[in-house]
Structures are given as C-alpha cells and as structure tokens.
Amino acid sequence: xxxxxxxxxxxxxxxxxxxxxxxxxxxxxxxxxxxxxxxxxxxxxxxxxxxxxxxxxxxxxxxxxxxxxxxxxxxxxxxxxxxxxxxxxxxxxxxxxxxxxxxxxxxxxxxxxxxxxxxxxxxxxxxxxxxxxxxxx
Length: 137
Ligand SMILES: Cc1cc2nc3c(=O)[nH]c(=O)nc-3n(C[C@H](O)[C@H](O)[C@H](O)COP(=O)(O)OP(=O)(O)OC[C@H]3O[C@@H](n4cnc5c(N)ncnc54)[C@H](O)[C@@H]3O)c2cc1C
Fold this sequence. Notes:
By secondary structure, the chain is an alpha+beta fold. The longest helix has 19 residues, at 44-62. The protein folds into 2 domains: 2-62, no CATH class; 79-125, no CATH class. It contains 5 helices and 5 strands; from the N terminus they run H-E-E-H-E-E-E-H-H-H. The chain has helices at 2-6, 44-62, 102-110, 115-121, 129-136; strands at residues 9-10, 15-16, 79-83, 87-91, 99-100. It is globular, with a radius of gyration of 19 Å. The strands form 2 sheets. The chain has a 3-stranded antiparallel β-sheet with strand order 3-4-5, with helices on one face. It has a two-stranded antiparallel ribbon with strand order 1-2. A hairpin with a 7-residue loop joins strand 4 and strand 5. Bound molecules: flavin-adenine dinucleotide (FAD). Residues 34-36, 42-45, 47, 80 line the site of flavin-adenine dinucleotide (FAD). Residues 34-36, 42-45, 47, 80 line the site of flavin-adenine dinucleotide.
C-alpha cells in the first residue's frame, strides 16, 4: 500500500495527487486533507474546510446517496505573518490578495499564535494565561 501511494505523489510539489472529491487518485476509499494533498495552499484554514467537506462526503457515501458536489478549492492565497509580538503583515483571502499592515496579524495571531481558536476547534479546554503561568511556577 505504501509503495502504491508513493506512486501518487506529485513530483512537482511532493504532495499527493487527488481528485475533485479529495480522494487519492484511483482510491475512492482514501481521502487526503491538509498539507498532504496537492489541491490548495498549505493552510490550517483550508485543512479545516477540507475536513468538513470529507466528513459530509463520507456521510453521503455511507447513506448510499448520490453525490456530485465537488470540493471548491479557494482560488486566493491568504496569510498572517507575525514579526515578534508587535508587528506583522496580512494578506486577505480576496481577489488580488489585499495586503494590510500589522493590525490584523497582531490582533489575531501575535499574542498567542491562535492557540485558543485551534484548541477550541479540537474541543480542548482553553487555559487562560494565568492558569498556564500558575502551572509553570
Ligand atoms: C510557521 C507556520 C505558520 C503557519 N501559519 C498559518 C496561519 O496563519 N494560518 C493557517 O491557516 N495556516 C498556517 N500554517 C499552516 C498550517 O500549520 C498547516 O497548513 C496545517 O497545520 C496542516 O495541517 P495537517 O493536519 O495537514 O498537518 P500537521 O498540522 O503538520 O499535522 C501532521 C501531524 O502528523 C504527525 N506525523 C507526521 N508524520 C507522522 C508519522 N509517520 N506517523 C504519525 N504521525 C505523524 C505530525 O507530528 C503532526 O502532528 C502555518 C505553518 C507554519 C509552519
């Protein structure tokens, strides 16, 4: 199996070749989401969208219903880059990639690297910085 999947790696970017349903080429029972498929930029945000899509698709397949809705990959790149705690730059998910200064990167990311939102996505309890401080002292 591993060597079969190795044949599905796109030599251009070392990522798995998938179809428009996020299934590995020629394997309808293997899905690829996140950084591993060659569909979209490597972004946690896109990985979440892909995971939601695959969950709904598996449900449809399990219920033996017809499915025709292909995954809609985002056409635009987006990125929040922090530079230390007080600076950064953001490119928004829009046509033309609207770029703004450090306000958004600082607000969304610099303080704690989106730990709280990531933890809550995985249903982990979010600790306040006071709790973390107490645990570490
Ligand atoms: C510095 C940096 C900043 C980023 N900033 C953003 C951002 O602002 N916004 C955004 O949307 N995305 C951002 N990303 C991208 C985002 O982190 C990735 O797209 C996302 O984490 C991909 O999720 P994944 O589950 O595919 O892979 P990962 O999160 O890399 O998870 C893969 C997991 O598999 C484990 N693993 C690997 N090999 C094996 C093995 N053989 N056996 C068992 N386990 C294994 C790894 O340890 C890891 O835990 C950033 C990435 C980096 C590096």
